Amino acid sequence: MRELPRLPDSIRASLPVEVQAYIxxxxxxxxxxxxxxxxxxxxxxxxxxxSSRPPSSDPPGAPPRPGPAPSGRQRGAQPGHxxxxxxxxxxxxxxxxxxxxxxxxxxxHTPLATDLPESxxxxxxxxxxxxVVKPHVTEHRYHRLACPVCQRxxxxxxxxxxxxxxxxxxxxxxxxLLRGRYRLSAREIVAVLLxxxxxxxxxxxxxxxxxxxxxxxATP
Length: 220
Prior knowledge:
Layout: H1 9-14, H2 17-44, E1 144-146, E2 153-155, H3 169-181, H4 186-195, H5 203-218
Antiparallel strand pairs: 1-2
Helix pairs in contact: 3-5, 4-5
């Protein structure tokens, strides 16, 4: 920090007391500002290599952190390393089995008949995928009949297992999972239900279903 020029004592003493006090205040404020500037400049030069700051706080122009010393080994699994593969399901647990048989020998081009015995067990590849989701929509019809005696129109009552609204227990459980476990907002849940499950729903209905689920879980 550059040293401030000092006012000679003879000149300072000739000035009015108020002016001397004002000059002292200005000097103190200027010294504090210069000290603060020096601290900020020092902080600007800090990075994760010359201080305890984490690498995520480094400015864009900071030098890159040195990487570990090269070990001389190639990337990836090393020779003798045990492979980690997904455990195959049993044949009874898969949904579909597709058989692939070679049609000819690649060397002599001899056709390979389908009834040739297996020389080795077949190689097994299990592909996991998510099926296209289509909501299951059930229409409940409540027939209305007129009483032959008093002519009163009687409507069938809603069974106990049928929800009062437009969404079943599966939708209620999914909304509760997305809201409570994954902390999605009402609008995000609307987008997930429409984009992934093709279920149209409004943010207000999401809030209502959360209340339904909370009421159902209150006693348990």
